[in-house]
Specification:
Blueprint (H helix, E strand, L loop, with lengths): L8 H43 L9 H11 E5 L11 E7 L6 E11 L4 E8 L6 E8 L13 H5 L14 E3 L9 E3 L5 H25 L2
Helix pairs in contact: 1-2
């Protein structure tokens, strides 16, 4: 009697096939997860560099990694803690071969209209003048809230001045007079604009308080 005729053979065969496919899926998932994490890191690094004016939006990923590694110093909330963005107070752009800080990237994030919005806003060493802003995570409505990622909207932040007090920046509706600390909102995206203003101000205030307390 051949082995295929054994009563236990069908179960053993199915177990072996299932184990083989499970192993393939586990390996595939591990490889995919590594690639996803790598892409997420590049998105964050690009946001930092674009916000502080050290790279362009279309700079190749390998160049982004090189510039980031050579010129960015991440100042952590907990120096002994994890390296992810939630433990970073600010990203400092250093002059090549020098201890001079050329610009500072401040991470921010919060709940948008549909999902989380995360980005980096850059400021000059005076800690008041905005150099730029870049988003690395958002799922707002295309053509409405999703317009926050456009060059047109992001350009409205350049050279704005962070104000003292509870609202370092204000996002105001079209038709209103625009001051030194105000940015015109995306037309038709009131809720996204309100939420973006809130998260920016919350994280900018926290950054200002931490850096003042720490003398950084």
């Amino acid at each position: 009697m051949s082995i295929t005729g054994k009563t236990w053979y069908p179960e053993a065969y199915m177990f072996a096939v299932t184990a083989a496919f499970s192993g393939i899926l586990i390996v595939f998932a591990a490889l995919t997860q590594e690639r996803v994490e790598r892409n997420e890191l590049i998105f964050l690094q690009r946001a930092v560099l674009v916000a502080v004016g050290a790279a362009a939006e279309r700079t190749p990923p390998e160049e982004i990694s090189r510039i980031y590694d050579e010129r960015i110093v991440a100042v952590k909330t907990d120096p002994q803690g994890r390296d992810d963005v939630d433990n970073v107070i600010e990203y400092r752009l250093m002059a090549p071969g020098s201890d001079t800080v050329e610009a500072i990237g401040v991470p921010f994030g919060g709940q948008g209209y549909w999902d989380q919005i995360r980005g980096v806003i850059g400021v000059r060493p005076d800690r008041r003048t905005v150099t730029g802003i870049y988003f690395y995570q958002q799922n707002e409505t295309p053509g409405l809230g999703g317009e926050i990622v456009t060059e047109d909207f992001r350009g409205r932040f350049e050279d704005k001045q962070l104000a003292a007090g509870d609202q370092p920046l204000q996002i105001v509706q079209a038709g209103q007079e625009i001051g030194d600390s105000q940015v015109q909102a995306v037309t038709g995206a009131t809720q996204t604009s309100i939420r973006l203003e809130r998260m920016l101000n919350e994280d900018l205030r926290a950054w200002q308080a931490r850096t003042q307390e720490g003398g950084q």
